Amino acid sequence: MSPVIPSSGSSDAPTIEASGLRKHYGDVHALAGFDLVAPAGQVTAILGPNGAGKTTFVKAVATLLKPDAGSLRVAGIDAIARPDLVRRVIGLAGQNAAVEPALTGRENLVMVARLFGHDQQAAKAAAQVVLDEIGLSDDADRPVKGYSGGMRRRLDLGASLVGAPKVLLLDEPTTGLDPRTRLELWESIRSLVRGGTDVLLTTQYLEEADQLADHIVIVDHGRVIADGTPTELKTRAGLDVVEVRVRHAADIAAIAEVLAPLGTEPPHIDEPARRVAVPVHDGTKALTEAVRIIGERDIALDDVGLRRPTLDEVFLTLTGAPS
Question: What pTM was estimated for this model as a whole?
């Protein structure tokens, strides 16, 4: 039999609600009044510099540590008062695949399902459902020791799903994966959300947050400093970006010299792409001035334009730290 899952209240209620969370280790304040609301039915991504409090918060949500102060509700449950009930509605996948290489993929999932309280028949059924979701049905009966790194990561994701969690916690789920495998895992995560699983993830890849997340939370020094959709955050940064692609690599330095006085920070140079970009406050005025000066210097261009900032540029603007 499956474990009894407590009701989380209205389906419109936030998946996670944190208010005034504090956690300190000696003089280090890992959480310093952390406030967060993760909407239901979405992927919420947490971004921040190293030591900003991301992992500490995820551990609190996973009931692996108890905050010193504040309140925390997960799927409508008081996570501080009833961590036992929270554990029944969450799944957790860490940075490293925690699977048994001597077993097959199917055996790994059946074993975890049994630990969740399923009988043998229900465990096999749950394992098959998850194998289909993560695209490993064809390799289910092969020993995991023969799996690629990407396949192991997907199986680890599957192991966190056999208990049918309402909330899935992913701590840097694609760290170390090649680009193709990362894209495959992204699609698996999107599929889970379409199926009704709410996802909270931390990531070091800002592109990943931009691609996956409906709601992004940026943290620094144990506090939330900004949150919103990717588009809202890019708008809130209050910047446009003038970007120029030169025809000849020898002109990169000259373009950087032209753009430097117009920007809010030094130009970003991508030499292999022969591209120089700079964030600016008044995009139209800055672009007009850049085109005028470039024309006077007769520098050959392949492209010049104005665009919204990337999430990397927003992150740098808000935290003052590289991603």
Answer: 0.73
